[in-house]
Specification:
Length: about 190
């Protein structure tokens, strides 16, 4: 089934072919997880969002139009599901009393922190983690997933111009984070 297009597999899965659905899950589970992780910010919520995404996809296969690209359709479901999981997680966090919150990890950097490459990676992570969800997600879909502007627009429900603007702002934040003196680091 490796040479069968996603759209054809979705059609087969909609007809009850579980092998076709399993192939779709195997093909896309890591990219759905990465998208969910970029939105939720942690493994557990990302894992929940990815699982919930594939449940929703399975239930919605009857509504899928095989004449349209599968990947943007899947990413739109993953995007919306991940936002819902993020909202639920934030709500749970607000409802948690301060006594239930674990002690924060020691923020002191390790010895490798001062190595130049680690500073660059750390700066990028810092910049990406600090971005609003919309910028972070758009950057991930373009740079990691390699999606086109049009497919990103379909997946996130915005116009192509908005995708381009978000990418520009996200790249600017990453570039700024790589400049000396950012985040209080010494030159």
């Amino acid at each position: 089934m490796e040479q069968v297009r996603d759209e054809a597999l979705a059609g087969l899965a909609a007809s009850g072919n579980m092998e076709a659905f399993e192939e779709l899950v195997n093909r896309h589970r890591m990219s759905v997880y990465r998208l969910a992780r970029s939105i939720t910010g942690n493994h557990d919520d990302a894992d929940d969002a990815a699982q919930e995404t594939f449940l929703k996809v399975y239930r919605a296969l009857g509504n899928y139009d095989p004449g349209r690209p599968f990947r943007p359709w899947l990413k739109k479901i993953a995007y919306n599901t991940s936002l819902n999981v993020l909202r639920a997680s934030r709500k749970r966090l607000r409802e948690t009393s301060s006594e239930d919150v674990p002690e924060p990890a020691d923020p002191a950097p390790g010895p490798d922190h001062w190595i130049e490459e680690e500073q660059a990676v750390s700066g990028i992570r810092w910049a990406v983690d600090g971005m609003p969800v919309e910028l972070r997600t758009t950057l991930l879909l373009r740079t990691v997933e390699g999606m086109s502007y049009r497919d990103i627009a379909r997946a996130t429900g915005v116009r192509i111009g908005t995708v381009m603007s978000r990418l520009s702002r996200a790249r600017g934040r990453v570039q700024q984070a790589l400049e000396p003196g950012q985040r209080g680091e010494k030159i």
